[in-house]
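The following block was generated as part of the benchmark described in Methods. Ligand: (6S)-5,6,7,8-tetrahydrofolate.
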Amino acid sequence: MNSTIAKSARLRSTPFTQRIEEYGVQSYTVYNHMLLPASFHGAIDDYNHLKENVQVWDVSVERQVQIKGPDADYLTQLITCRDLSNAKDHLCYYAPIVDDQGKILNDPLIMKVHPDTWWVSIADTDILLYAKGIAIGKNLDVEITEPNVNPLAVQGPKSFELMRRVFGEEILNLKFFHFKRYNFQDHQFLIARSGWSKQGGFEIYVDHDEIGLQLFDKLIEKGKDLKVRPGCPNLIERIESGLLSYGNDMDMNDTPLECNLDSFVSFNPDIEYLGKAALQKQKDQGVSRSLIGLVLDLDEISVTQYIPIKKDGHLIGSLRSACYSPEFNKCLGIAMVDKSYQSLEQNLSLEINGNEISAKMTNLPFQK
Ligand code: THG
């Protein structure tokens, strides 16, 4: 199939789309109604390059839902099961958003960017609408907007050297999941030591289109000898690293406890959020299924929808993401599997795609 995506204003471009195209983006996916580059030189080439060098990613699709006003603390806590009561104004919090049944609606990073203002850096669902609905229903004094913020991620082992060249020595003091404001062309950008890879790096929250483009060009120019390239989140790298992808590995039929996100679920009696009672009940009873890693005896695999997993004719779960892993020289999968069928490190024969496949279950993240 050689079809392409028909672009329109509804399928939003980003301030960097023109550059991304000049640098030869091969394919896009759609995320938060916006273009997200999906490959530049093919998955394996992009993967190898990311693990050795540095890439600049247009991750404008990581939209910020801004919650501001006197009730901002209350509303932000109400929609997430993570305890934000002591949230610091220089730290990023991975914080699942859940509904009244404790099901995951999104898995953003949340940051308190000013005393009365939060940024919810969302995955691919319309959290602005959810937050507005709750604010209206509860008559809260908040303003909920999507500011013109378009993150650029600088990822890869050489990201530190590249960022040092552009922002100065001081950027190297920024610790993992901390954020701070740094100057470029007399403009202050909020920069976090974060990003959706485990190769090290930063995310720059670009809130000025024109200076943002100059910044993009400067990163490419200063990184020439570091072999910098425009890039994008990489399926293989993120599966090997155990980074979960909302909409792929989990959706609104799953709870954080079923997705091994227990450490981001608060049962502190002083914390109030939607879905807490349902999650407390599930915790007390124990989950009946959970996400687990699969190491598959296959040369290649591609998952574009949940694939049923059967054992002796019984449906025992679904395979949700998978790829061939150069690191493991096998295929790795992330699957939701009934607890009663989970057996670690044993070779099992599973029926996947109608074929009997030898698989080993293993804890996430994958260990070599
Ligand atoms: N950065 C920003 N916004 C985002 C993403 C991001 N929005 C969409 C999506 N990614 C949200 N999901 C994740 C999932 C995992 C992580 C970040 C965002 C992540 N996890 C670390 C890990 O699993 O090791 C750390 C988690 C922790 O210990 O707190 O980085 O990437 N701005």
